[in-house]
Amino acid sequence: MARKTDLYLFVFPSDYKSLRKELPSMRLTREAVRAEYEWVRDRGSDVVPIVNTVRSDLGEAFGTTVDPIGIGQYDDAVDAVFADGDRAVNVAALVGLLRDLDVPGDYPGFVVDELLARELAAMIAGEQPLRLLAEATFHYADVYTHGDADDPAGLDDLDAALAAGVQTRLPGWEWQATDSPFGIDD
């Protein structure tokens, strides 16, 4: 059975530079990455309580105790993420996009802010399997984040992504305390 799809055409004015002036700049320089790093570090007082709520709830759901984190651990995790230049520039881009992302009525932009935030959580967490765990945890953390009416739509997703990525990256879970039994020693 054939499916009907919508075709969207994007028509740019002949003077596309006039349109560009209306859009925010997304120029990523060392200074821009540093500014995003500082902004993320400053969010610790907002993000750490979300991390600890998520850790407590998930620990209870999985029948284990998960260590809470403090601001110092949050700062250390942010430092580690931004110390890796390749990761830092991509994290900075996602942070900048989410912080300013707004869609009138929010719901039409629901997919894009969820997509960007889920990827941000994964980048912060690190490599697999932590990436996947952070993506799943983002959706749980997102339940606890609600911006004010005048906040951009992406801001609450940004906080949830920071919380999910950091909570996944940091130790505190029993399964992280020992080496995997599946490694092959030669």
TrEMBL record:
**Where in the numbering of this chain does the DUF7984 domain appear?**
26-185
Instruction: Name the coiled-coil region(s).
Output: none
Source organism (scientific name): Halapricum desulfuricans
Q: Name one GO biological process term.
A: lipid metabolic process
A Pfam family for this UniProt protein?
Answer: DUF7984
Q: Name one GO molecular function term.
A: phosphatidylglycerophosphatase activity
Q: What is the lineage of its organism?
A: Archaea, Methanobacteriati, Methanobacteriota, Stenosarchaea group, Halobacteria
Its recorded name reads DUF7984 domain-containing protein
